[in-house]
Q: What sequence folds into this?
């Protein structure tokens, strides 16, 4: 349905259990993400540009609330992309739909 390029970050584990903008509780072990515009429930493939690793997440929150960031990923998604050491990585998003 479309693609976007930008920088991904991830949620701190301390946010586990807190409410997201969709009303769901954040689960650090689920494959979820925050995006400023995509509808809740949208599935997105996130591919790390430097190592080619990818993961499919579901948008259930709004954010990131920091300029220059495109998407915030759950802890589990960040683990799959091997990005926790760097904290922020260049990614390509492929919007897969609902």
A:
């Amino acid at each position: 349905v479309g693609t976007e390029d930008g920088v991904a970050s991830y949620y701190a584990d301390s946010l586990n259990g807190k409410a997201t903008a969709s009303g769901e509780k954040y689960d650090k072990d689920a494959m979820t993400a925050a995006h400023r515009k995509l509808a809740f429930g949208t599935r997105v493939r996130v591919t790390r540009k430097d190592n080619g690793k990818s993961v499919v997440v579901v948008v259930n929150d709004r954010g990131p609330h920091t300029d220059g960031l495109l998407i915030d990923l759950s802890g589990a998604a960040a683990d799959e992309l091997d990005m926790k050491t760097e904290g922020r990585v260049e990614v390509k998003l492929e919007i897969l739909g609902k």
The chain has a mean pLDDT of 95. The longest strand covers residues 2-10.
